Design the sequence.
């Protein structure tokens, strides 16, 4: 019942952000703080989101649509992964300060929420609990991706 | 402090060639010319920026303690306004009560200055015969008499009237500072939303550098004022001059105005010393030696450690910019030239970096084509 009233008062945009797995564990107050930092971007199918080798300034969460991660300039032959709504990409460049490892393209028209490196780092300073929740979700997704890659390489070797 | 990754991004993303320097100088000059027309707004804006960077650390601390940004901004800005009122009201009342004695003190300081100049010139004439033959002392006295007390009074009266005219617009400063503290982040989001997708991450990088540069400059300025106050205050106290810390603070704040600020601060210290110790010129000379030492320490040690780090500018264009600022927009131009040039350089450098990157421009052109195709998809010919 309380949740019903809480959701009723929640802005539609916040409801969308809450549904993203990366932010699902945040409290409403934390969600509002994070939402104030998110940049909304829209890409058309085929548009490049970032290139391999770029110095990454932001991580992206797919709000709607799908994103293709591929080797630079090889959307068909160099396909690495195709990510659905709710998933995060571009986070490695933020975590280890390394250049982007692959190219990201919109596999279909998509809406992305972007969190900049500066905002993520300031969030770690100012709202450590919220930042640690986000970092935990990031670690979970990275773990899942590693397991999936292990499975794929095992299948290939068989 | 920048990380190696940031330095790497800076070298790849920001153009720093001679064209960027020329464009920075030209745009800064044009901006100073434009700002000159709206000084009533620029000055409170500048004060607000200084207040913003002074108040940001406590706001940040409150945010660290879990307070929301808006609430933290309201608490800190409110406390600042209350503290300012508590400090200003007694100061204004005291000034009103001592207006007459203040005028007397002004003439006392002026006379002491005259006596000091007279004694110094007499001493110089005694030491150097050619000065005596030139009647140097008499010439200076005559020039001072020609300039006249009434002329000086007029100059000071017009300066005070000018300052009084600024006061109402200065009341805007706390409001500006409050909204900077509360909504600064929204401004960055607003700018980020306005750029095409291809340039989005570069814009994020530019905004981050913009904020870092401005923060480093203005917090450096405040740090420099604190160091100057302590060193100058300590030096004056050792010499034996009363109100040493207050004099130190005044000269430190005056030194924010390049070129003429330190000069006015020096005159102030010399006049106070000459008035309080009329028969001890050696104290005045000690104060002058201290001022010169402080100037050298400021220019070669403190400034590079505080403000200098923020702008990453070569000394030659720095000096050039200060003079251009002064010529174009007077005292506010002197103050504004450097921070403005630092920020313009961030923007021009980033735009230069984008123009130098054919891949980014190609991505933008491709995205534009995609959008155009989408918009015109149903507009096929009906031949």
Sequence:
């Amino acid at each position: 019942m309380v949740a019903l009233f809480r959701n009723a008062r929640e802005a539609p945009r916040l409801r969308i952000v809450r549904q993203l797995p990366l932010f699902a564990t945040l409290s409403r107050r934390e969600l509002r703080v994070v939402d104030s930092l998110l940049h909304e971007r829209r890409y058309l199918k085929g548009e490049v989101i970032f290139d391999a080798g770029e110095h990454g300034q932001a991580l992206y969460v797919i709000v709607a649509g799908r994103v293709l991660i591929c080797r630079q300039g090889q959307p068909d032959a160099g396909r690495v992964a195709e990510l659905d709504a709710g998933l995060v990409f571009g986070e490695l460049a933020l975590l280890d300060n390394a250049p982007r490892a692959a190219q990201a393209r919109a596999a279909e028209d998509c809406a992305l929420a972007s969190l900049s490196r500066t905002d993520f780092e300031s969030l770690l300073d100012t709202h450590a609990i919220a930042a640690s929740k986000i970092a935990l979700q990031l670690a979970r997704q990275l773990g899942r991706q590693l397991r999936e890659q292990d499975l794929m390489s095992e299948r290939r070797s068989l | 402090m920048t990380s190696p990754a940031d330095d790497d991004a800076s070298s790849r993303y920001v153009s720093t060639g001679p064209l960027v320097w020329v464009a920075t100088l030209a745009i800064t000059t044009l901006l100073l010319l434009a700002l000159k027309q709206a000084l009533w707004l620029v000055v409170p804006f500048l004060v607000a920026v200084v207040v913003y960077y002074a108040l940001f650390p406590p706001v940040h601390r409150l945010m660290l303690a879990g307070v929301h940004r808006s609430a933290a901004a309201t608490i800190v800005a409110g406390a600042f306004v209350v503290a300012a009122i508590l400090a200003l009201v007694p100061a204004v009342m005291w000034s009103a009560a001592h207006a007459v004695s203040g005028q007397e003190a002004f003439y006392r300081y002026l006379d002491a200055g005259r006596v000091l100049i007279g004694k110094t010139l007499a001493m110089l004439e005694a030491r150097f015969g050619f000065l005596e033959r030139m009647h140097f002392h008499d010439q200076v006295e005559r020039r001072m008499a020609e300039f006249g007390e009434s002329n000086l009074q007029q100059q000071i009266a017009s300066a005070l009237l000018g300052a009084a005219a600024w006061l109402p617009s200065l009341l805007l400063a706390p409001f500006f500072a409050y909204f900077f503290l509360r909504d600064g982040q929204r401004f960055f989001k607003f700018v980020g939303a306005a750029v095409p997708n291809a340039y989005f991450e570069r814009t994020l990088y530019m905004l981050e550098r913009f904020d870092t540069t401005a923060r480093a400059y203005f917090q450096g300025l405040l740090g420099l004022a604190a160091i100057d106050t302590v060193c100058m205050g300590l030096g004056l106290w050792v010499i034996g001059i009363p109100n040493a810390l207050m004099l130190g603070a005044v000269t430190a704040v005056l030194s924010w105005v390049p070129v003429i600020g330190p000069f006015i601060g020096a005159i102030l210290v010399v006049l106070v010393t000459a008035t309080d110790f009329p028969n001890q010129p050696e104290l005045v000379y000690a104060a002058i030696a201290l001022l010169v030492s402080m100037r050298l320490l400021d220019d070669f040690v403190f400034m590079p450690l505080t403000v200098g780090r923020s702008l990453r500018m070569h000394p030659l264009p720095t000096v050039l910019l200060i003079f251009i600022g002064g010529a174009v927009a007077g005292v506010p131009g002197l103050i504004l030239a450097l921070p403005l040039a630092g920020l313009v350089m961030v923007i021009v450098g980033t735009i230069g970096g984008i123009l130098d990157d054919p891949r980014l421009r190609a991505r933008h052109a491709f995205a534009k084509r995609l959008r155009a195709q989408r918009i015109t998809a149903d507009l096929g010919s009906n031949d």
In short: Chain A has one domain: 11-157. Strands of chain A lie at 39-43, 48-50, 58-64, 67-71, 74-83, 88-89, 103-106, 110-116.
